[in-house]
Amino acid sequence: MNKQIKLLEDKEQLIKQALDICLVKIQEAIAERGQCTIALAGGNTPKPLYESIAAQNLAWDKIHVFWGDERYVAPDHPDSNERMARQAWLDRVPIPPTNIHPMETGAGNPETDASKHDAHLQEFFQVPTGEFPSFDLILLGMGGDGHTASLFPHTDALKVSDRLITVGNKDGQPRLTFTVPLINQARCVIFLVAGADKQTALDQVFAEKADDMNYPSRLIQPQGELQWLLTGVNI
Ligand code: 6PG
Description:
The protein is of the alpha/beta class. It has one domain (2-231): Rossmann fold (3-Layer(aba) Sandwich). It is built from six helices and ten strands. It has helices at 11-33, 47-54, 81-88, 110-125, 180-184, 199-206, and strands at 2-7, 36-40, 63-67, 69-71, 100-101, 137-140, 165-170, 173-178, 188-194, 225-231. The chain has a seven-stranded parallel β-sheet, covered by helices on one side. β9, α6 and β10 (225-231) form a beta-alpha-beta unit. α1 (11-33) packs across α2. The radius of gyration is 16 Å and the shape is globular. It binds 6-phosphogluconic acid. 6-phosphogluconic acid binds at residues 41-45, 69, 81, 141-143, 147-150.
């Protein structure tokens, strides 16, 4: 793993740096493999990044967009990560609808929808059960509790190692999430972390020793590149 930590002056610089890296990774993936597979983070931090990507002139037909996690709500719900990314980016560019791969939440049962998306990824990447595909780029945020995607502290999702997608749990609310091994199979993972409210968790995530179950972002040790883009914190 090749880990880089960059402290940016402010949110605007963080988004610009993230955009630069994303554009390089997208172009590299398309040049080397004919397509780019990118998984998006939810939450608030990445929204301006998605708006910036939407303003680029890219080979949209060669870019496939996934989500690293999803709240278990309808796609038109205000909390939906899919809704945010469509409004900020995907509705603004001529990307083929079949290149957009949301985590469906319509079965009324999170386990069912998790298995369905798991099967979709296996089909898309043509990987047999038990193997993990490599996304070209996975974008992640980190909560003030050290969670990432929907891998929350001391939840069962942290230990799932035989599937691509599992059910996360935030205060009793179900979520769909990439598993740790799926994220760690990525060619490049970028964390976008902004704000002093993340300081305590960040100190623990970067500490030599701390409880991985209490700070799940510690579990993200991808086989490829790991880039932490930070602002509003001390390191
Ligand atoms: C989600 C995200 C989650 C998010 C962090 C940070 O579905 O909410 O995937 O993991 O990245 O909670 O969120 P902010 O960027 O809003 O601080």
